[in-house]
Specification:
48% of the residues lie in helices and 18% in strands. It has 143 residues and is of the alpha+beta class. The chain folds into two domains: 1-27 and 108-143, Orthogonal Bundle (Topoisomerase I, Chain A, domain 4), CATH 1.10.132.20; 31-106, Gyrase A, domain 2 (2-Layer Sandwich), CATH 3.30.1360.40. The strands form two sheets. A four-stranded antiparallel beta sheet has the order 3-4-6-5, with helices on one face. A two-stranded antiparallel sheet has the order 1-2.
């Protein structure tokens, strides 16, 4: 394998690892409402395999502490509510027949500490991934 080809592959893997870390960090629930919190929630729809929520409706954050989900098919409201309740987000959905509203509670001191620990863990996992890729490439270059 040519050196240029190896470096190109490694660079692509680095970008994938960094993108995965960015996505992972974006899904952390902070005090601010962000649609990325629920976009990838898997919803059992139409009796088939689970589908990401983003494919079933429009997700927006009209206020800093609220996420609004407007399903394109109103018959999916119960399934979406069930998926949100079953998730580990700790959010209680409220349904008005057309929309699902998620109110994000304010962060307390304990929750902030937990978030910092969680973010440190995720960032360290990203660093380990990059180091592993770098070491693998270095070993291949030696060989």
């Amino acid at each position: 394998m040519a050196l240029e080809e190896l470096l190109a592959q490694t660079e692509a893997r680095f970008k994938k690892a960094i993108d995965a870390l960015k996505h992972d960090v974006a899904t952390v629930r902070t005090g601010r409402a962000a649609p990325s919190l629920v976009e990838n929630l898997q919803v059992e729809a139409y009796g088939g395999p689970a589908v990401p929520l983003i494919q079933l409706g429009a997700i927006s954050a009209p206020e800093p502490r609220q996420i609004v989900i407007q399903p394109w098919d109103k018959s999916l409201i119960k399934a979406i509510e069930k998926a949100i309740t079953a998730s580990d987000l700790g959010l209680a959905p409220s349904n008005d027949g057309n929309l699902i509203r998620l109110n994000i509670p304010a962060l307390n001191e304990e929750r902030r500490r937990d978030l910092v620990k969680l973010l440190h863990k995720k960032v360290e996992e990203g660093r380990v991934e990059i180091r592993t890729l770098r070491r693998h490439t270095h070993d291949e270059m030696k060989a």
